[in-house]
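Supplementary Methods. Inverse-folding protocol.

Structures were first reduced to a discrete structure-token string of length 161. This string, shown here, constituted the complete conditioning input.
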């Protein structure tokens, strides 16, 4: 009886030690992810030409009509209209489109847009017309998801008023 009780206690101690080590490991992973978010080089995506438009984004993948003039610049809490263009394989466009915005100094994410695609012009495979509003100045990462998959990322600067 004593032997079975002793073995049971040893097994419980081993189980608790394993769980505790896993929790510490997971917390360290979360910390690394948060640190990576703040230490990334958040730099505005490059401009590129497609058809007659200048775009901001990743050439050959995704971008939106943009120039750094006063009219199309992002300003805090100012809703602007942008046309996004996408290049990819037909099966990549199967699903709803969603843009998630993350500010460089904040962990919170904001759904910037959700909707459906249109057949595109301007040498792209798909396009979507959006109205976007980013609430504060600084650098923002806009992650484009189609369904549950990340399609691409664009970095934009929101200027001070």
């Amino acid at each position: 009886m004593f032997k079975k009780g002793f073995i049971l206690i040893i097994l419980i101690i081993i189980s608790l030690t394993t769980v505790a080590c896993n929790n510490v490991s997971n917390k360290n992973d979360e910390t690394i992810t948060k640190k990576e978010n703040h230490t990334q080089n958040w730099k505005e995506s490059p401009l590129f030409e497609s058809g007659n438009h200048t775009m901001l984004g990743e050439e050959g993948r995704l971008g939106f009509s943009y120039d750094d003039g006063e009219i199309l610049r992002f300003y805090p809490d100012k809703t602007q209209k942008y046309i996004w263009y996408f290049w990819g394989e037909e099966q990549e466009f199967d699903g709803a489109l969603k843009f998630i915005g993350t500010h460089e100094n904040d962990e919170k994410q904001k759904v910037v847009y959700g909707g459906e695609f249109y057949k595109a012009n301007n040498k792209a495979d798909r396009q979507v017309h959006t109205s976007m509003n980013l609430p504060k100045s600084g650098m923002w990462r806009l992650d484009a998801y189609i369904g549950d998959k990340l399609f691409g990322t664009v970095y934009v600067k929101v200027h001070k008023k």
